[in-house]
């Protein structure tokens, strides 16, 4: 959905997994995945490359203690066609995330505390 979407994860049950794939670039708002509570966090990392520079890239880390969301803006924070990431519940308070994002411009951290 080009106009963005927000997915709220359910309370984590160990082993529960969700997979996200961008089939169209977000052009307004954001692609956002957020945990169900301020005490449930993301841990892990995503890699992101700049689609305008073939040799670019960076790794962004979800710290497991303050990051509750990933929010892609259709530019520097990802959200372009082909983004793909997976979240898996590893405890009652953490979701592990891994994936590949596509951004444009000066790449920025897509993880958020709200």
Show the helix and strand layout:
Layout: E1 5-8, E2 17-21, E3 31-34, E4 41-50, E5 58-63, E6 69-72, E7 84-89, E8 94-103, E9 111-112
Parallel strand pairs: 1-3, 4-8
Antiparallel strand pairs: 2-7, 3-6, 4-5, 6-9, 7-8
Any overview of this molecule?
With 114 residues, this protein is an all-beta fold. 0% of the residues lie in helices and 45% in strands. The chain has strands spanning 5-8, 17-21, 31-34, 41-50, 58-63, 69-72, 84-89, 94-103, 111-112. The strands form two sheets. Strands 2-7-8-4-5 form a five-stranded mixed sheet, with no helix packed on it. β4 and β5 form a beta hairpin.
Oligomer: single chain
Query: Tally the helices: what do you get?
Result: 0
- Strand-and-helix sequence, N→C? EEEEEEEEE
Let me know the average pLDDT. 96
Query: Which parts are unreliable, with pLDDT below 50 for 5 consecutive residues or more?
Result: none
Radius of gyration: 13 Å
What overall geometry do the principal axes of the alpha carbons give? globular
Question: Would you summarize the structure shown here?
Answer:
This protein is mainly β and 114 residues long.
């Amino acid at each position: 959905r080009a106009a963005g979407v927000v997915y709220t994860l359910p309370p984590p049950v160990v082993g529960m997994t969700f997979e996200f794939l961008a089939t169209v670039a977000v052009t307004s708002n954001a692609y956002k995945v957020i945990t169900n509570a301020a005490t449930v966090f993301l841990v892990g990392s995503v890699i992101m490359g700049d689609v305008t520079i073939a040799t670019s890239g960076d790794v962004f880390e979800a710290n497991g203690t303050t990051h509750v969301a990933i929010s892609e803006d259709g530019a520097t924070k990802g959200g372009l066609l082909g983004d793909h990431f997976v979240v898996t519940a590893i405890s009652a308070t953490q979701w592990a995330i891994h994936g590949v994002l596509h951004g444009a411009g000066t790449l920025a951290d897509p993880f958020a505390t709200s």
